[in-house]
């Protein structure tokens, strides 16, 4: 026998001996059905990789781009909604304040419908007197107007003409 035939015989003997040593369960896995199952799962995996003709990395990039596009699409209307909601809150507060002011003015209007109230206001604020009455003005020391002191940060009103002030600023 030649060298090749001896090698073939040895390989066959090894294959038979290894198959004989394996348990029955392991021998079943090497049958055609298992190979067929493996073939189908391999085809499925390769089919998944062929979706849209892209690899996993490319598909992940496309998904990321779609998610970013959706986020940007939602961001502008959401910002507009939140801005308008805060503006509505501010306007509602202003409306409540104005309604309170209207209520106060209506109450004041109702007070001024009384002729006695109008007369009292005229005597107090405008210093009116009825014909035949003698008005008296009593000034108490605390009633005198106090000279207004300049407030901090406010300069006193300059005295004299501008050229006099200029001359005094130069001569010291």
Would you kindly provide a written description of the structure presented here, covering whatever features stand out?
With 172 residues, the chain is mainly α. The N and C termini lie far apart (135 Å). 70% of the residues lie in helices and 0% in strands. It has helices at residues 3-21, 24-29, 32-49, 56-112, 115-125, 162-171. The longest helix has 57 residues, at 56-112. The chain is built from 6 helices and no strands. Keywords: Coiled coil, Membrane, Transmembrane, Transmembrane helix. Pfam families: DivIC (PF04977). This is Septum formation initiator. Residues 88-115 form a coiled coil. It comes from Amycolatopsis minnesotensis.
Q: Outline of this structure?
A:
This protein has helices at residues 3-21, 24-29, 32-49, 56-112, 115-125, 162-171. It has 172 residues and is mainly alpha-helical.
Summed up, the helix count is 6
Q: Which percent bin holds the helix content?
A: over 70%
- Taken as a percent bin, the fraction of beta residues is under 5%
Sketch the major β-sheet. none
Oligomer: single chain
How many strand segments?
Answer: 0
Distance between the termini: 135 Å
What is the ordering of alpha helices and beta strands? HHHHHH
Question: What coarse outline follows from CA principal-axis ratios?
Answer: elongated
Instruction: Average the pLDDT over all residues and give the rounded result.
Output: 78
Rounded radius of gyration (Å): 52 Å
Q: Which structural category do the helix and sheet elements fall into? A: mainly alpha
Q: Unreliable segments (pLDDT under 50, ≥5 consecutive)?
A: none
Keywords: Coiled coil, Membrane, Transmembrane, Transmembrane helix
InterPro entries: FtsL/DivIC
Protein name: Septum formation initiator
Coiled coil: 88-115
């Amino acid at each position: 026998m030649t060298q090749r035939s001896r090698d073939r015989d040895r390989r066959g003997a090894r294959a038979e001996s290894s198959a004989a040593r394996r348990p029955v369960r392991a021998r079943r896995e090497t049958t055609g059905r298992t190979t067929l199952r493996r073939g189908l799962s391999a085809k499925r995996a390769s089919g998944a990789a062929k979706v849209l003709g892209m690899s996993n990395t490319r598909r992940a990039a496309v998904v990321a781009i779609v998610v970013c596009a959706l986020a940007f699409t939602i961001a502008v209307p959401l910002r507009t909604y939140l801005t308008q909601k805060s503006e509505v809150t501010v306007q509602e507060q202003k409306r409540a304040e104005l309604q309170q002011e209207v209520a106060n003015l209506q109450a004041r209007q109702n007070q001024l419908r009384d002729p006695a109230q109008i007369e009292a206001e005229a005597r107090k604020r405008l210093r009116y007197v009825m014909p035949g009455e003698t008005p008296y003005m009593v000034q108490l020391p605390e009633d005198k107007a106090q000279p207004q002191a300049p407030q901090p940060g406010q300069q006193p009103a300059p005295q004299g003409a501008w050229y006099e002030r200029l001359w005094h600023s130069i001569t010291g």
